[in-house]
Write a structure and sequence with these properties.
The complex is a heterodimer of chains A (341) and B (239). Chain A has 341 residues and is an alpha/beta fold. Chain A contains 12 helices and 14 strands. Helix content of chain B is 85%, strand content 0%. Classes of the chains: A alpha/beta (341), B mainly alpha (239).
């Protein structure tokens, strides 16, 4: 649905060049919620703004729903007719909502409809539908200044959906909201994704956002995508940075000197098997559980467990092999203690 | 001079001043508002970014603003005569008043429009709006409280200028104050006129401030005042 190919963006100011995007390839499948995560300055904001050409990429292509937007005419501040048409089918939600304070909620939602050229009655009907969809029917006549942050973002979402887009871009939509409101907005995005088959590309600096709504994710650093893929695949990928960030176990203990510490990740039905007791019985070893956590990520149950086996890594080759045979992902943690052993 | 004599002179002069200022204000807003918006649009990063045009417009505005009004007025005599057929009377005075006020007002509008949140501009662009939509539905409505305040400032400046225009054949209160107060030493009458101008200026400023407050308070802590107004009726009709 959204594909970027070797996208670069270089800013030039007073002879200095700053590379915001250094060759980004992104592939968002139809109907999925795709999250791009990274610290500020990683280039994720530039990336999402390049998708609807609010920023012109320096090179590379952006294709949304089969249309190559980079080929359409128009500068950053003044788009050509074709690009404007294409943008009407791409909704965008902003961190600071960007609602017009001079218009009521209903009039704000009607703005894109005015741009499309619907008449008054059609606009009213559509705006009412959209406000119903985001649960703000009773606020239609309020001004943005009278709403809470979460309500403003709901208006922003209703407005973004006015042109019946197939794609919704979300630029840190929940970053200005408190945790509870964030959850309700994310739930709304997820519902819209499921009800309308909307493809959502969101950028965020919060791992929790990725964890709670995304099907796929990409980690950006220094203008590049360091890692990307479906969350379930990422969690199964040994040494995945995103998986570690999504599911940190760092606060757990690191075990005793001379022992081997394993990190076991299981998904789906794997926890149904009593692998810990099987391991203990089969190999007659004492297993020390250092920590464990189970969470639902992308709608699937995922667990992670950190265990300690006596003896060095070399002594535990067979038990590790046994665990891997059970379909579990096993990482041997190289701790300072482990290295000594 | 008796109060009756004063009144006889004052009312026609007041009417002349109000006409002079009223017509100039309308012309100034009609011509200055687009110029102010254009100054923002053609600036760097604007929707119609065009450095040469921006530089030329800016230079013309600065030049016009640096000319003392009295000189501008005399320099425009032939233009005024060509436009309104005479260089005397309040009608003629509106020409230099408008020409003098346009750059002043345009600069004020430029500042007002530039203060509109850049995010709103992006939102409209992301919706697929063109530049005209941007100006008409976003920049001007969002900058409206500021623009109204600028109109107030401009009207008051025009009243000041109109007194100057009066002394070179424009008529109005300025002319009256000059002829009677200065040339005939009718000091009391002069002070009466000054007081009248002060009252006009005050009323305009208060009206302007009230309008700005009404516009700026749309949806911002307007709860209490809203309760005092019978808005329920209009809401019922609307729904």
């Amino acid at each position: 649905m959204i594909t970027t190919t070797d996208l670069t963006k270089v800013y030039r100011s007073r002879g200095r060049e700053v590379t915001a995007l250094a060759g980004v390839d992104l592939h968002v499948r139809p109907g999925e919620v795709y999250g791009v995560v990274g610290t500020s300055g990683a280039g994720k904001s530039t990336l999402i703004r390049c998708v609807n050409m609010l920023e012109r990429p320096s090179s590379g292509t952006v294709t949304v729903d089969g249309v190559d937007l980079t080929a359409l005419a128009g500068g950053e501040n003044r788009a050509g007719k074709d690009l404007r048409e294409a943008r009407r089918r791409i909704g965008m939600v902003f961190q600071h909502f960007n609602l017009l304070s001079s218009r009521t909620v209903q009039q704000n939602v009607e703005l894109p409809l005015e741009i499309i050229g619907l008449d008054r009655t059609q606009r009213r009907r559509k705006a009412a539908e959209l406000l119903d969809l985001v649960g703000l029917t009773d606020k239609a006549r309020s001004y943005p200044g009278q709403l809470s942050g979460g309500q403003k973002q709901r208006v922003g979402i209703a407005r973004a959906l006015a042109g019946d887009p197939k794609v919704l871009l979300s630029d840190e939509a929940t970053s200005a909201l408190d945790p509870e409101t964030t959850r309700s907005i994310l739930k709304l995005l997820r519902d819209l994704n499921e009800q309308l088959g909307l493809t959502v590309l969101l950028i965020t600096h919060e791992m929790d956002v990725i964890k709670s709504v995304c099907d796929s994710a990409a980690l950006m650093r220094g203008g590049r995508v360091v890692e990307s893929g479906a969350l379930t695949d990422l969690l199964a990928r040994p040494g995945s940075e995103l998986a570690r960030e999504l599911f940190p176990l760092s606060e757990f203990g690191t075990g005793h000197p001379g022992a081997t510490v394993l990190e076991i990740t299981f998904q789906g039905d794997a926890p149904a098997q009593p692998f810990v007791s099987q391991l203990a019985r089969t190999y007659q070893i004492e297993i020390n559980i250092l920590g464990a956590a189970v969470e639902t990520i992308a709608g699937r149950m995922v667990g992670r467990m950190r265990v300690e086996l006596p003896g060095s890594r070399h002594d535990n080759v067979v038990p590790i092999g046994f665990l891997r045979e059970q379909g579990l992902q096993v990482d041997v943690i190289e701790t300072a203690n482990g290295a000594v052993a | 001079m008796t109060w009756d004599q004063m009144q006889e002179l004052m009312w026609p002069a007041t009417w002349e001043t109000l006409q002079m200022v009223g017509v100039s204000t309308v012309c100034t807003v009609v011509l200055g508002l687009p110029l102010g918006v254009l100054l923002v649009l053609t600036a760097k990063g604007g929707a119609l970014q065009n450095q040469p045009v921006n530089k030329v417009l800016g230079a013309v505005v600065n030049l016009a603003r640096s000319l003392p009004f009295i000189i501008l007025m005399i320099a425009l005599f032939s233009f005024t005569r060509w436009l309104v057929g005479s260089s005397l009377g309040w009608q003629a005075a509106t020409v230099p008043l408008t020409v003098g006020a346009i750059p002043f007002f345009a600069r004020l509008v430029e500042t007002n429009v530039r203060e509109v949140d850049r995010g709103l501009v992006e939102a409209v662009q992301a919706m697929g709006g063109n530049t005209w939509t941007l100006v008409r539905k976003t920049l001007v409505p969002e900058a409206l409280p500021g623009i109204v305040a600028s109109v107030t400032t401009t009207v008051i400046a025009l009243i000041g200028y109109s007194a100057m225009a009066g002394t070179v054949g424009g008529g109005g209160l300025g002319d009256l104050a000059y002829r009677y107060g200065y040339l005939r030493f009718e000091t009391a009458f002069m002070w009466v006129i000054v007081a009248e101008i002060a009252i006009i200026v005050t009323v305009i400023q208060l009206a302007g401030d009230y309008a700005v407050r009404r516009l700026a308070n749309r949806g911002r802590g307007g709860g209490r005042t809203r309760l005092l107004r019978p808005r329920a009726d209009t809401d019922l009709v609307a729904s």
